[in-house]
Specification:
Number of strands: 7
CATH class of the largest domain: Alpha Beta
Protein name: Ribosome hibernation promoting factor
Number of domains: 2
CATH architecture of the largest domain: 2-Layer Sandwich
Radius of gyration: 31 Å
Structural class: alpha+beta
CATH topology of the largest domain: Double Stranded RNA Binding Domain
Order of helices and strands: EHEEEHHHEEE
GO molecular function: ribosomal small subunit binding
Helix content: 25-40%
Subunit structure: Associates exclusively with 100S ribosomes, which are dimers of 70S ribosomes.
Pfam family, one: Ribosomal_S30AE
Shape: elongated
Keywords: Translation regulation
């Protein structure tokens, strides 16, 4: 990771440099590929305040830029460090939470489901669902009457998913 500290209208002392470098070291705990960190300190004599800016270039993300203005330089650095840490933590959490499932794990899950379905093989009859464009309830009823299927899943004109099924009473139908 390349680091640079730039001071404008302020003399950079060793203690300021050490403090900024210590803050940058905390970013390593997120295990992200940080390419470079640029720290900029701007002193404003009129307002007697400091503006501190972190600019981080991270692989696979856009550049993260955080600016903080405060009368105390060290307070500005601390607040900016906290804000950058929050961004890095969120990105790290997003990466670790979205790990892909291994192929061997997927096969194990399918095997468990297949074993569960075998228990109910006598009671459950699998049906193939076919979903097309939105249709009227009357059209769905006509299609169900013509087919041997027990139910029909479709979207109505309001984009609501509906289920039309043959009731236990002969010639009667139910609708969810």
């Amino acid at each position: 990771m390349n680091t640079s500290i730039v001071g404008r209208d302020i003399k950079l002392t060793d203690s300021i440099k050490e403090y900024v470098n210590g803050s940058i070291e905390t970013f390593k705990k997120y295990n992200l590929d940080i390419i470079s960190v640029t720290s900029t300190i701007v002193g404003d004599d009129k307002a007697k305040s400091f503006t501190f800016e972190f600019s981080l270039n991270i692989a696979n993300i856009d550049t993260v830029v955080v600016k903080q203005k405060d009368k105390d330089l060290y307070a500005a650095i601390d607040i900016a460090t906290d804000r950058v840490s929050k961004v890095l933590r969120r990105h790290n959490d997003k990466i670790t939470a979205h790990k892909a499932t291994k192929f061997s794990e997927a096969i194990e899950v399918e095997d468990k489901i297949a074993k569960e379905l075998e228990k109910f093989e006598e009671e459950i009859i699998p049906q193939r669902l076919v979903s097309y464009k939105p249709i009227d309830i009357e059209e769905a009823l006509e299609e169900l009457k013509k087919s041997t299927a027990q139910f029909k899943v479709f979207y109505d004109k309001d984009d609501n998913m509906r289920v039309l099924y043959k009731a236990n009473v002969a010639g009667k139908f139910g609708l969810y």
